[in-house]
Amino acid sequence: MTPSLAEEINVAITAAREAAQIVLSVYQRDFDVDHKARNEPVTQADRRANAFLVQRLSGAFPADGIVAEESVPSPEVLAEQVSRERVWFVDPLDGTKEFIARNGEFSVMIGLTVRGRPVLGVVAQPAFGSVAVGVVGQGAWLLAPDGTKTPLRVSDQDRVDACTVILSRSHLSLPLQRIVDALRPAARVACGSVGVKATRIAQRQADVYVNPHQPGGAKLWDGCAPDAILVAAGGRTSDLSGIPVDYATTTLELVGGFLATNGRLHDEVLATARRVLDEA
Known about the structure:
By secondary structure, the protein is α+β, with helices and mostly antiparallel strands. The chain is built from eight helices and 14 strands. Helix 1 packs antiparallel against helix 2, helix 5 packs across helix 8 (about 265-280) and helix 6 (about 195-200) packs parallel to helix 7 (about 220-230).
């Protein structure tokens, strides 16, 4: 049973909201775009929110490890951080490409793991003022800008041919296209940010999110908070071999890929994805 985590929930929600304001302060004016790698843009919003969140979480929970996208430590320090019983994974701006495109589909994500498994996830959407929260074993909810709290629960859809698959807007790889074509869902919806996608599945606006691994693709901080929220909302997550993602690792990429569903569709989607990837 997950402990109450009352203090952790409060700190994470407050920190995510404050980081969202930092992100918005950059979003609402002109800003420069740099690149960490060939296809990985980064902005002042990423860096400022990252520094704030690391400082806030380390100050509140000094015994915990922290792995944040814009301040990944040396391999030795990273190994020490992820070996701790509790580790926070921080993506200060998930959906940087959408942030740059100014379409609103980006988020601030904070996830907490205990012994490698997500227990708490917070995803703030700065452009809309909402915050999704999930505590595994206790439930998930959405906080509106006015403070209204709405429970989150995944859909009961049990037919793949009637489901909605939510897709990446910026990372539509050929393997992903082949998997979705093979699923033949009723609808496909493009969306930025893993956090926004997870929230929409928890809101019953979609049923399936699949992300096969590609070099330089999704990392641990992309999966952690969405993982906790989806499971807390009654969904299911795994890699594309069906194994729950282990976050107690120094391999930052989600090398097994990532699958998030309403639970009822998981096994069928997983089998289709495996067949398509094996045939490639």
